[in-house]
């Protein structure tokens, strides 16, 4: 067996250290799961931090015990994410973990270092559709920025759920929304969530933003530009 030093000598390359997601599970939590207290508590913290109480009115106790309340909370988010509502999360359910972690705390914030954002066509419209602040740390967890466009928002009136500079979903199908967002380079789990906003408007759109907005979080500057230009 070659050591890392021998591998580097033969190939000129070294192994990059594997980085594990800090919220990754190493066993299973939920119905018929291993339910190690530390793992259960990790899931409970993710669910609570993702806005479960604000969305459902139910408070999840963070105690490391996998009771019916924890299982129902897992199922609620599985349905939200178009997953089978099995009530069980395992180490391979990275989609679930990624979505809830994104809502709990944005781990990074891409910064635009090139000045004002530019698009090939429609610059005036692009500029009028929102702002691109980079000072707030966590949208949805502070006072509202009504013109910030890189998160799900509802402009009001008869508008639908909107993302970026004017991508209104009120007259778009589920398939169209998903395909367009993926073409713009937006992550799959975000595109799946946003696709559920098809044809929503008025108070239904506002409620969607309240529940799903924290899960989607922000899109990047580049993704916003691509979405506008499609």
Automatic annotation (TrEMBL):
GO terms for biological process: defense response to bacterium; killing of cells of another organism. The keyword Kinase does not apply. It holds the Pfam family PG_binding_1. Residues 38-89 form the Peptidoglycan binding-like domain. The keyword Lipid biosynthesis does not apply. GO terms for molecular function: lysozyme activity. Keywords: Antimicrobial, Bacteriolytic enzyme. InterPro entries: Lysozyme_dom_sf, Peptidoglycan-bd-like, PGBD-like_sf, PGBDSf. This is Putative peptidoglycan-binding protein. It comes from Tatumella ptyseos ATCC 33301.
């Amino acid at each position: 067996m070659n050591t890392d030093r021998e591998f580097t000598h033969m190939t000129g390359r070294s192994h990059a250290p594997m980085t594990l997601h800090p919220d990754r599970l190493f066993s299973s939590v939920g119905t018929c799961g291993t339910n190690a207290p530390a793992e259960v508590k990790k899931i409970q913290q993710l669910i609570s931090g993702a806005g479960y109480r604000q969305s459902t009115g139910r408070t999840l106790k963070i105690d490391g015990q996998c009771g019916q309340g924890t299982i129902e909370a897992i199922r609620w988010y599985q349905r939200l994410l178009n997953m089978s509502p099995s009530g069980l999360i395992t180490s391979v359910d990275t989609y679930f973990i990624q979505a809830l972690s994104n809502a709990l705390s944005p781990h990074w914030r891409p910064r635009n270092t090139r000045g004002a954002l530019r698009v090939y066509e429609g610059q005036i419209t692009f500029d009028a559709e929102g702002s691109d602040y980079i000072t707030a740390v966590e949208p949805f967890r502070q006072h509202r920025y009504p013109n910030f466009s890189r998160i799900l928002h509802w402009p009001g009136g008869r508008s639908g759920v909107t993302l970026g500079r004017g991508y209104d979903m009120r007259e778009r199908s589920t398939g169209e929304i998903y395909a367009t967002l993926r073409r713009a380079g937006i992550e799959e789990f975000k595109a799946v969530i946003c696709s559920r906003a098809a044809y929503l408007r008025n108070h239904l759109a506002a409620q969607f933003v309240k529940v799903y907005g924290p899960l989607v979080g922000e899109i990047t500057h580049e993704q916003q530009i691509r979405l506008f230009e499609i």
